[in-house]
Amino acid sequence: MDPVLIVVILLILAAEFVNGWTDAPNAIATVVSTRVMSRGSAVAMAVVFNVIGVFSGTAVAATIGKGIVDSGAINLPTIGAALLGIIIWSSVAARFGMPTSESHALVAGLAGASLAVAGPEALLWEGWRKVLIGLFLSGVVGFLFAFFFTRLVRRAVASSPPSSTGKSFRRWQIITAAFMAFNHGSNDGQKFIGVFALVLLLGGVTSTFQVPIWVVLVCALVMGLGTSVGGWKIIQEMGMKMVDLRPWQGFCAQVAAGGTIFFASRFGIPLSTTHTIITSMMGVAASRKLRHVRWDIAGHVALAWVLTFPICGAIAYVAAYIVKRFFG
């Protein structure tokens, strides 16, 4: 097998591991911060349902593998450069508890590397249109869904005894946390499967873009392994500092985020699961009063989002340019 192909596949698996590691908080930040589950049991649950979610479809994988950049205009080193940006930026940000979006890192890396190798014509509008839709879903719809759903739930249980509703919502929050983990796998896990399939095509292993079942299995297991490590600093930042949630509010945030991601995955829309759960948590808190959101922490999170596109794009561009300039 081509050594370059082997190196790029290893980079994909490294990026998938980082994806599981840094995005574990997406599923379990609320259930841990409300103390419904312990950190260890929540991570174990996230591993299982992340893996199950990866097997739920390939629509997002197809968007990433065929819709973001023209496969005829790039090569294996281009993909490797894109993955390098993800691994470096996400690992550094996680050390400081900054919840990054591997979705944004991936598309920014693919764009930066492709621009260095083939110019703007390598970018495909159809896939980028879906990326923009994903930005809207994660940034606006997630917040509004959570905001209004929380108010609806509050009215529905207003006359119920707090003791009975508290126990019920603790059970329901565990279920919705599993639902959130499943949807993370169905969207974020699919993205690197799409890159894997694209690499197999560019490396001559396959003659057309296709997603072999063994690729799905390998990516699912590696992401599950990364999730098992967990991102405790990010969990603290997202679930314990930015907002103060009770179990019923955690339930509302997870329903809103999970529902938004589920819809996006069915239509092959790659969106940031990190954005979606965080804006949903903010929507829940804001449904009471805006002051219930720690806006200084939210600003810290937003800074990570803003920096992801230019930093990952720049790293990928420089890496791809160096490879093209000195290695042909």
Written account of the structure:
By secondary structure, the chain is an all-alpha fold. It is 80% helix and 0% strand. The protein is built from twelve helices and no strands. The chain has helices at 3-33, 39-54, 59-67, 76-95, 102-118, 125-156, 162-202, 213-229, 232-242, 247-266, 273-286, 295-327. Helix 1 runs parallel beside helix 9, helix 2 (39-54) packs across helix 7 (162-202) and helix 7 (162-202) packs parallel to helix 10 (247-266). The longest helix is centred in the middle third of the chain and has 41 residues, at 162-202. The chain is elongated, with a radius of gyration of 19 Å. The chain starts with a helix and ends with a helix. The mean pLDDT is 82.
Report the order of strands and helices: HHHHHHHHHHHH
Number of helices: 12
Helix percent band = over 70%
Query: Rounded to an integer, what's the Rg over CA atoms?
Result: 19 Å
Alpha-carbon distance between the two ends:
20 Å
Mean pLDDT: 82
Bin the strand percentage: under 5%
**Which residue ranges are poorly predicted, with pLDDT under 50 across at least 5 consecutive positions?**
none
Largest sheet: none
Q: What is the strand and helix layout of this fold?
A:
Layout: H1 3-33, H2 39-54, H3 59-67, H4 76-95, H5 102-118, H6 125-156, H7 162-202, H8 213-229, H9 232-242, H10 247-266, H11 273-286, H12 295-327
Helix pairs in contact: 1-2, 1-4, 1-7, 1-8, 1-9, 1-11, 2-7, 2-8, 3-6, 3-7, 4-5, 4-12, 5-12, 6-10, 6-11, 7-8, 7-10, 9-12, 10-11
